[in-house]
Amino acid sequence: MARYLEGSNQSHGMSNTPEYNTWASMRHRCLNKKSPSYKYYGGRGIKVCGEWLNDFGAFYRDMGPRPEGMTLDRIDNDGDYTPENCRWATKAEQSNNKSNTVPREVWCGSRKLTKLAQENGVSYQCLKQRIKSGWPEDEAAMTPVGGWLARCQSSIIRRHCLGLDPL
Description:
Radius of gyration: 22 Å
Number of helices: 8
Number of domains: 2
Helix content: 40-55%
């Protein structure tokens, strides 16, 4: 497979690669007002930097090959597509970086729900369902999956951590 050649008018031979498709999709989201995603990107003022805008080679030079299982992510979700603000990231990293991922207050500080689930070994769906069912957020996150005894033990640990009861 041919790789990037200096100059935007020279063929790069990468038109059917994941990297090229990522570049084309990024431009589409930011520039095409008919794109269903435009309102979340171009419609919010997100731009593609001048160097990448019409030069796939510059994008590929800055980002390099896309690692398996990763996609393009903006580090600052409100920032533009620039070399300083972009990285290849996993789906989980991207989920934690979304603008609609709201931090939840728990006894150990502010954590995004997806991050909180990951840190405590509880699935995001389980944690979300527990909170929706009325569980306190710290208990929902800290309780291992597996029944009443686990929930009671977690409650004792939680009360100790909050300084309410000695162990």
